[in-house]
C-alpha cells in the first residue's frame, strides 16, 4: 500500500467535506511532509497524537480550502527521480513540489537553491 497516497487522499477528502482536522497514521516521512505543508502555508498546524497518529489541522480562506489540488508523482511501482535543473514548477511557482533529497525532504525551490535532485513525492497547489 502507498501510505503517502493515502495521506494525500485523506487530506483531499477532508477538504471536500469541510472538516477542520484529519487524522492519519504516523510515519517520519508524513511528518516531514506536514512540516513542509505548514511552512508553505497550506495547513494551519499538525501534531502527533498517541498512539502514533498525525493530526493535521486544515486551513481555509473563508469557506474555500487553501489547498486546491494534490497529486502524487512518484509511486511505488514507478519512481520519478529528477536532477536539480529538471525540478518542475507548479502553476508558475504558485504551488509547490515536494522532493526527497539526500539532505532530507524539501520543496522544489529549496532543492534548486541547494543544487540537489531527488525523488519527486507530490505536488500541491
How is this structure best described in words?
The protein is of the alpha+beta class and 125 residues long. The protein folds into 2 domains: 3-65, Ribosomal Protein S8, Chain: A, domain 1, CATH 3.30.1370; 70-124, Dna Ligase, domain 1. Helices cover 27% and strands 35% of the residues. It has 3 helices and 10 strands; from the N terminus they run αβαββββββββαβ. The chain has helices at 3-17, 28-39, 108-114, and strands spanning 21-25, 43-49, 53-58, 60-61, 64-65, 70-72, 81-82, 96-101, 104-107, 118-124. Strands 6, 7, 8, 9 and 10 form a 5-stranded antiparallel beta sheet that branches. Strand 4 (60-61) and strand 5 (64-65) form a beta hairpin. It is globular, with a radius of gyration of 14 Å. The mean pLDDT is 92.
Instruction: List the total number of helices.
Output: 3
Indicate the proportion of strand residues.
Answer: 35-45%
Corresponding CATH architecture of the largest domain = 2-Layer Sandwich
User: Which whole number gives the mean pLDDT?
Assistant: 92
Structural class: alpha+beta
Spatial shape: globular
Q: Give the terminus-to-terminus CA distance.
A: 25 Å
CATH fold annotation of the largest domain: Ribosomal Protein S8, Chain: A, domain 1
Main CATH class of the largest domain: Alpha Beta
Order of helix and strand elements from N to C terminus: HEHEEEEEEEEHE
**Unreliable spans:** none
Q: Tally the structural domains.
A: 2
Task: Give the arrangement of secondary structure elements.
Blueprint: H1 3-17, E1 21-25, H2 28-39, E2 43-49, E3 53-58, E4 60-61, E5 64-65, E6 70-72, E7 81-82, E8 96-101, E9 104-107, H3 108-114, E10 118-124
Amino acid at each position: 500500500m502507498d501510505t503517502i497516497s493515502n495521506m494525500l487522499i485523506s487530506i483531499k477528502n477532508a477538504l471536500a467535506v469541510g472538516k477542520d482536522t484529519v487524522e492519519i497514521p504516523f510515519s517520519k516521512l508524513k511528518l516531514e511532509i506536514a512540516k513542509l505543508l505548514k511552512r508553505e502555508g497550506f495547513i494551519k498546524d499538525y501534531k502527533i497524537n498517541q498512539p502514533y497518529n498525525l493530526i493535521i489541522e486544515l486551513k481555509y480562506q473563508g469557506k474555500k480550502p487553501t489547498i486546491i489540488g494534490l497529486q502524487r508523482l512518484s509511486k511505488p511501482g514507478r519512481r520519478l527521480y529528477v536532477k536539480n535543473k529538471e525540478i518542475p514548477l507548479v502553476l508558475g511557482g504558485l504551488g509547490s513540489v515536494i522532493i526527497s533529497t539526500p539532505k532530507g525532504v524539501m520543496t522544489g525551490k529549496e532543492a534548486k537553491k541547494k543544487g540537489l535532485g531527488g525523488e519527486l513525492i507530490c505536488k500541491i497547489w
